[in-house]
Each structure stands twice: as C-alpha cells, then as structure tokens.
Design a protein that fits this description.
Elements lengths: L1 H14 L6 H21 L10 H22 L1 H6 L15 H18 L9 H20 L15 H9 L10 H12 L1 H18 L5 H14 L11 H4 L7 H34 L15 H13 L5 H25 L6 H10 L9 H13 L1
Helix pairs in contact: 1-2, 3-5, 5-6, 8-12, 9-12, 10-12
C-alpha cells in the first residue's frame, strides 16, 4: 500500500515537469518515491506528517497496540484473564485517589492522541475503530467524576470474589509451572494492603454518605467468612496445593508446600477475617435502608452515566425501561400467537409447562445425541 501511494505521488511530481527528458523524469520519480518512503517512516514520531492517510493508518494501529499494552500494566488482573502472563504477579489497588489520577492522565492522553488523527482520511474499518476508541476514552474519563470508588466491592463483584476464583486453581490464574506458583504467591501477598485500603475507602464513603444498602452488606459478610475458613480441606485457596503438577521437581514442590500455606493464612485468610469483622461490626450499622443508587449523593447522575456506559446509547434510564416494557409486551403477544396457532387451549403459563414436560420436545437421550444434532445444524 505504501509503495503504491508513493508512486502515485511521484507521478504527480513528474506530470508537472513536462519539459524534462526521460532520464530526469525517472530520476525525479525515484527521488520522489524515496522521499515519500522516508516521510512514512518518520511520520509516526513527527506530528507534522499526521495528516497523511497511509501514515495515519499505521500510526492508528500502533496507538491501539500501545494503549492495550499500557492498559494491561494498569489492570494486571485483566491481563491475566486475557492470557497475558506478564503481570500475573501484580495486584493494583484501583479505587484509590492516586490510581484514579493515573487513570485520568492515561485516558486523557489517549483521547488527545486519537483526536490528532483526521477521521475522514481513514479507511472504513479504521473509522469504526476510531469512533469506538474515542468513545471509550470519553466515557471512562466521565466515570472518574463519580464517587463509586468509595464502595470498593459489593456482593456481586469486586476483588475479594475475584481472588477466590483466581486462587482456587480453577480460574484464569495459571498454576502449571513453578513460576506460576511464585507469581500467585507475590500477588496474594498484596491482598493485605488492598484490604486495608478498602476499609479506608469504605470509611470515607460513610463520611460522604456513599454506602451500600444493609440488605447487600448482610450478604457480603458470610461471603467473607467463607473465604476466611481456616480449614484447608474446605478453603478454596488450598486447591493449588492439592493439584501440584506432576512434572514439577521435588525441590519445587517442597518449596511451594513450604511457602504457599503461610501466604494463604497470613495474607488471605487473615485479610478476609478482617473484612468480615469490619463489615459486620462497623459498616453494617452505617449502611443505608434505601436500595437504589438514586438515593446516594449524585445518584441520579451516576445511574444515568451507568446506563450510557452499559447500553452504549444516549437514552435516558426511563426510556430504556419503557423500551424493555414494550419489548416484553411484543414478545408476549408473539408467544400468544404461537400458542393459539397450534390449537393450545390453556393460558401462557400452561403452555410453558407443556413445552417443558411434553415428551415430543425431548427427542434426545444423551448429551452426545444433542451434540451430534447440533453439528448437523452447523453443516446445514
């Protein structure tokens, strides 16, 4: 692509010099082509050439690569989930003010960089990537305005639950090599600092009136207590010790058995006990009796932002809710139509029961039969 465009530029140079002989034309063509290649080479580091379409395509891809690499460093758990093992030993405290300042700088820098590109000069697919990336930077920057970091985790999501999945040996954290175990030991040791920071920010949330509902905190306490179970036969963090790969050397196995149990008890179990105690004795009495985000300071604005974040639309929460109701109505009408078309005389709930229990809808006798039938559908 670069060579093709370089020659087209050189042709224009030759065309405006009709009085030159063939030798000079060829010479100029080569010089022009060489000059354009040099421009393409240096343009990614020189903003003066950023308006050139071919340069912008190459630089745009480099921008996305750089963003991804830097994001994985900021979010090492996300890197682990994506199979990027470079940061399996790291654990960031992503709700602190200092980290959010880092994120603000990060997203703002990439937003300013993407805006330097001339969108109209990009190919269609690159324009789509441009729009998605630009929106992501803008929406993430906006999200930093809301005090959601004063609730470090809840009963549905958060690092305490993620750590249980990672440390069980059944999640995305690998436990295949000796280095994998070393990485997990280093990451697990950081959980103590994360726990202390979480309690600090929960306290700040109480001061600002940004707290969880009591009904949710009540569910979080037994979660923390379960993960703090000191019985190694019942605590999931001991799973990797019971599944040591056979190909590890005896020395490596002995080292893991010597260090990992202590890390589990000192940095994981002890931290979960601390979280359980804090939630039960300090946070729960301060938790609110209301339920929705709307009752929090700037709650309505936060909810509207979250609706835009997750739906990628600019529709208001009320409009989204109305759309949901209308879709439910439309689908129900279609269900009734199908029920009537086959002559079923009962109501819709009876029809659902009929669909679930009638033997004509259960043609398969084994999982393999289901898979075979599905593969036939794929072929068709």
């Amino acid at each position: 692509m670069i060579l093709k465009r370089c020659y087209s530029v050189s042709d224009k140079v030759i065309a405006c010099r009709s009085g030159l002989n063939i030798f000079n034309e060829i010479f100029l063509m080569r010089i022009a082509g060489l000059f354009f290649l040099i421009v393409c080479f240096f343009a990614c580091s020189d903003s003066r050439f950023i308006e050139m379409p071919v340069v912008k395509e190459n630089c745009l891809r480099k921008l996305f690569d750089d963003y991804w690499d830097e994001r994985m460093r900021l979010y090492p758990l996300e890197a682990t989930q994506n199979g990027d093992a470079r940061f399996n030993h790291l654990l960031t405290i992503s709700f602190t003010d200092s980290f959010r300042d880092t994120l603000n700088t990060f997203y703002l820098r990439y937003l300013q960089t993407i805006q330097q590109f001339k969108r109209e000069a990009l190919e269609e697919n690159d324009r789509i990537s441009y729009d998605i990336f630009k929106r992501e930077m803008e929406i993430q920057l906006e999200g930093l305005k809301y005090p959601t970091h004063h609730i470090p985790f809840n009963q549905f999501w958060g690092l305490p639950l993620d750590m249980g999945q990672l440390g069980s040996g059944q999640g995305s954290q690998p436990f295949l090599t000796f280095s994998d175990y070393q990485n997990w030991i280093q990451r697990a040791r950081s959980f103590s600092a994360w726990t202390d920071s979480a309690i600090i920010y929960f306290k700040r949330g109480i001061e600002k009136g940004v707290v969880l509902p009591k009904a949710l905190v009540i569910k979080m306490i037994p979660q923390m207590k379960e993960l703090a179970n000191a019985d190694s036969s019942k605590n999931i963090f001991f799973g990797p010790l019971q599944q040591l790969p056979q190909y590890l050397s005896s020395a490596e196995k002995d080292s893991i058995r010597a260090f990992l149990p202590g890390v589990i008890r000192q940095h994981l179990i002890k931290s979960y006990k601390k979280l359980a105690h804090y939630l039960e004795h300090d946070y729960l009495p301060q938790a609110r009796t209301s339920t929705g985000i709307g009752s929090l300071p700037n709650g309505a604005e936060t909810y509207t932002y979250l609706a835009r974040l997750w739906t990628t639309t600019s529709l208001s929460p009320d409009k989204i809710y109305e759309t949901g109701l209308s879709e439910v109505k439309r689908i129900k009408i279609e269900m009734e139509r199908i029920k009537d078309s086959i002559g079923f005389t009962g109501d819709i709930n009876a029809f659902f029961h009929f669909m679930k229990t009638n033997k004509r809808f259960m043609p398969y006798k084994s999982p393999q039969e289901i898979l075979t039938a599905f593969k036939k559908i794929q072929k068709r």
